[in-house]
Design brief:
Layout lengths: L39 H10 L6 H16 L3 H6 L3 H27 L25 H29 L13 H25 L3 H12 L14 H8 L12 H18 L5 E4 L2 E5 L3 H9 L11 H4 L8 H20 L1
Antiparallel strand pairs: 1-2
Bound molecules: zinc ion (2 copies).
C-alpha cells in the first residue's frame, strides 16, 4: 500500500490515502474509444479486452445465457400461457438479483471474506434515520426488491409481449445475422452508458433530485444492495434504456444481457470493493471507483467509463484533487455566465 506518493508523470499508484481506504491508480481513465485524435489500437484493446477477463459484462452474459436457455418463456408460451409467462420473467429477475446480491453482501460485508482489502471507503453500512427502517441494508433491500425488480420486470414484459406478437423487429436466431448479433453486444454497452448519463443528469436537476433521486443518494458509502436502491420513477427512467430494442432488431439474449447489465451491473458497481478476492486471488472486477466518486462528491461522474460524456461536459472527476478543483472552477464559471449572460 502506498500513501499518496505521486510519481513524476503525475500518476498515483493504487493504494490508500487520507480520503480512501483503497483507490485504484490515479488519475482513473475513461475508455479510449472516443479519443481524439483517434487511437484505434487502444480502442480495440479496450473493447476486446473486456471480454477476455471475468469482467462484469462477461458475468452478465453468463447469467443471461443461463436465464434464456433454462428459464425464459418462448414466444409461443407468451402467446398462449395467459399471465404465467409474466410471473416466470419476474421470478427469473428476482432470482438473479437475490443470488448475486446475497452472495456479494454476505461475502463482502457479513463474513468479511476479504476484510478491508480493496474496499474504497472504510466505513461499514450505516444505521441512520435518513434510511427507511433506519437501516441502510434494509432500506436498500426494500427499494430494490419491492420496487426495482417489479419495474424492471414490467419493462421486460412489455418488450417480450410485443416482440412475441410480431410488433417489434427481432433477430430470430443468432445464425441469421452473425455479425450484427455480435455487434449489438458492443452497441448495448455504449448506448447504456450514454442513456445513463442523460437520465442521470436529468434527475440531478434540483426539483427532480429532491422528489426522486435523493433516495439513491442516501447512500454516501455504498454496498451491493445500494445499486438498485432508487425511487420507482428513477427505476422507470433507468430501465427505459431497453427502448433501443424497440427499434434495433434484437435477439432475446441481447435484451436479457442488456437488462442484467443495468440491474446486476448496478449491484456489482456499488459493491464498494474494486475486485472480489477469492483465496487472495483477484477474480471478479466489481466496484466502480468512478461511480463511488459520484456518491461522495455528487456533482461529477454522472455517466460511466464507456462513453466519456463527463469529460465532454466538464464533469469528469478522475480521483485527483486537481480534478476536484477543476470541476468546482467550471461550475463557478457556468453560474457566473448564467447570471451575467
Ligand atoms: Zn446521482
Ligand atoms: Zn449509484
Amino acid at each position: 500500500m502506498t500513501h499518496n506518493n505521486t510519481s513524476e508523470n503525475g500518476h498515483t499508484p493504487a493504494g490508500s490515502s487520507r480520503e480512501w481506504n483503497f483507490h485504484p491508480k490515479l488519475p482513473i481513465t475513461l475508455s479510449p474509444v472516443f479519443d481524439s485524435p483517434p487511437r484505434p489500437k487502444a480502442a480495440l484493446r479496450w473493447i476486446v479486452g473486456t471480454w477476455l477477463t471475468f469482467s462484469p459484462p462477461v458475468n452478465h452474459l453468463v447469467f443471461a445465457i443461463v436465464a434464456y436457455v433454462f428459464f425464459w418463456p418462448s414466444a409461443s408460451d407468451i402467446q398462449t400461457s395467459g399471465v404465467s409467462w409474466m410471473v416466470q420473467i419476474f421470478l427469473v429477475n428476482l432470482g438473479a438479483t437475490v443470488v448475486l446480491g446475497t452472495a456479494l453482501h454476505l461475502y463482502l460485508y457479513r463474513f468479511n471474506g476479504q476484510q478491508q482489502r480493496l474496499k474504497f471507503d472504510k466505513r461499514p453500512m450505516e444505521k441512520s434515520a435518513r434510511f427507511t427502517f433506519g437501516d441502510q441494508v434494509l432500506d436498500n433491500l426494500y427499494w430494490t426488491l419491492v420496487w426495482g425488480v417489479p419495474v424492471w420486470s414490467a419493462w421486460m414484459m412489455l418488450y417480450f409481449g410485443l416482440a412475441a406478437n410480431g410488433q417489434l423487429p427481432v433477430l430470430e436466431t443468432a445464425g441469421d445475422e452473425p455479425v450484427l448479433f455480435i455487434l449489438i453486444f458492443f452497441l448495448i454497452r455504449f448506448w447504456q452508458s450514454a442513456h445513463f448519463y442523460g437520465i442521470h443528469r436529468l434527475i440531478h436537476i434540483p426539483v427532480l433530485y429532491k422528489a426522486i433521486h435523493h433516495v439513491h443518494h442516501r447512500n454516501i458509502n455504498v454496498g451491493p444492495w445500494s445499486g438498485l436502491s432508487m425511487h420507482p420513477i428513477e427505476h422507470v427512467l433507468y430501465f427505459s434504456s431497453i427502448l433501443i430494442h424497440f427499434v434495433v432488431p434484437s435477439h432475446p439474449i441481447h435484451v436479457i444481457f442488456h437488462l442484467f447489465s443495468l440491474s446486476l451491473g448496478a449491484l456489482l458497481s456499488h459493491s464498494g470493493f474494486e475486485r472480489v478476492l477469492l483465496r487472495e486471488k483477484e477474480t471478479l472486477k466489481a466496484g466502480s471507483f468512478h461511480h463511488q466518486l459520484h456518491h461522495r462528491y455528487f456533482e461529477c461522474n454522472y455517466g460511466s467509463e464507456e462513453v466519456p460524456l463527463d469529460r465532454w461536459f466538464h464533469s469528469f472527476h478522475d480521483g485527483t484533487s486537481a480534478a476536484r478543483q477543476r470541476i468546482r472552477a467550471h461550475k463557478k464559471v457556468v453560474r457566473h455566465d448564467k447570471h451575467t449572460g
